[in-house]
Amino acid sequence: MTDNRRIDPYDPTDGHRQVLASIFWPVDADSCFSDKVSYMPPATAKAYGQEAQKMGLSNDTFKSVEIEVCAVSTSPKNKSRCHAKKKRFPIAIFSSGSGNSRLIYNAMARSIASFGNVVVLIDHPYDAIIVEFPDGTVVEDGNMPEDTESLEKATQAQIFSKGLNKPFMLLGRPKHSSEDATWVEFYKNLKGPKFELAVKGTVHRSFTDYPQLISALDLPEAAKKEAGHLFGSVEGQVLENLISETVTGFMKICFGDGGSKQIEKVSDDIIVLTGTRLP
Fold it and tell me: Total domain count for the chain?
């Protein structure tokens, strides 16, 4: 998508602001068939292959990874059936963190969508380490200023000064709030329903597809040990389900459809989740 009215301040050529999106939506199992597609396009797979190489894996690792999807039949009969079952779903806009490509969250988005949500993954050129467009155009190496913390503080300042009366959830690693004072100050200024959850055994980069990818790959023991330091110790499928259930419960709260009990049910599982602070 291109906004022809805005210049991207981080584009050295003064191009218009663009974002690239992937959309995941719930589909009835009886209206589609299982299919597999490439997890990442070539240039993005190559960029993430360099990280895989640091773990002792081939730099071609991401080129061979596929993700299973539900391919919808385009037959007139199926179109008619889908139209008859037309439903409305809540929408989650998912913006990646730490300069990651939106594609390293594909499996997570698919899982959240399977709980009855539409999930839109967004890539911001010059923010993500690489953005690869369908025509093969590639924007590499973020052009964001080094002091990105100042941008975060500018965003947080509005909450600090005015507060926020909307539902808000913080989901992260253990001890994050005790090591990052901004989380504590931010949380104090949330006036609506609020939740702070910490998943045992996670680190900052656990909240990507890496745990799932590591589970799916036949890694040597040395690589598994290294992966644990980088991406946490929670098994990929367990973490994916936990995140999906928690996010779905929170979205129900946002749309006035309950959800508190669903979050509390997950947070009662002390083997996985700790540190809940309910209002």
Answer: 1
